[in-house]
Protein: 3-methyl-2-oxobutanoate hydroxymethyltransferase
Organism: Georgenia daeguensis
Amino acid sequence: PRRVRVHHLRQAKERGERLTMLTAYDAVTARIFDEAGIDMLLVGDSIGDNMHAHPSTIPVTVDDMIPAVRAVARTARRALVVADLPFGSYEASPAQCLATAVRMLKEAGAHAVKFEGGEHLAEHVRLLTRSGIPVIGHLGFTPQAENILGGKRVQGRGNEAADRLVGDALALADAGAVAVVLEMVPAPLAARVTEVLPVPTIGIGAGSEVDGQVLVWTDMAGMTDWSPRFARRFGEVGRELSAAAGAYAQAVRERTFPSADHAYES
Ligand code: KIV
Ligand code: NA
């Protein structure tokens, strides 16, 4: 399969073709999603709350991210592999941001990076872009800032906040961002950003009038009891996995597994 590259993102927007993105944190899921035709695999810092049992994304480190990005990048043959920059690894300066992003490409094989924030990070985006690293922006509810945003809340409500978000999106795109994720923003605002932005918007809790969608894979597949309102459970994989584990345990206890065909002869 031909690799999805950044020019395909803009092409998709121009043609009105929807882009698909899912998170992946390991080789098992990367292979499945890549073969299913998902365009972009995001090694999100949501690895913190979804895989590493942290309460949020805030404790995630670059050293947590690298092995996960490496596993996904080694496995995906078609998808564009995007690495999140974790909290504290990029904000201080464009130089800090570049150094972290370089690790994601050199040590782990990512094709692009994503980080949270607007106009105040335009210089970061500009430096990475000039250095050959595609950047995806992330606006709206930005989980790394949950302490200042007052929890998981819809962002960009009201004219002033909406105008600010549009300005942030334009500043990121102007600095070279190849796409912008919009998380938990009112659908009409996401539609407005999508209309004015030359690069694709990728929504999560941002309605349908965006250029693409992203979901955390465990929400998409029904792995957990709770999932956010904006997600849809496209499967009940958690239930299926639980049934498989239960059937295995029962077969062992009943001595029906392993049977002769799973055993080696002398
Ligand atoms: O870390 C993540 O999973 C994300 C997506 C929800 C956009 O940033
Ligand atoms: Na993230």
Remarks:
- The pocket of 3-methyl-2-oxobutanoic acid (ligand 1) is lined by residues 23, 42, 44-46, 84, 138, 181, 183, 204, 214, 216 (CB under 6 Å).
- The mean pLDDT is 98.
- The chain has eleven helices and eight strands.
- The longest helix spans residues 159-175.
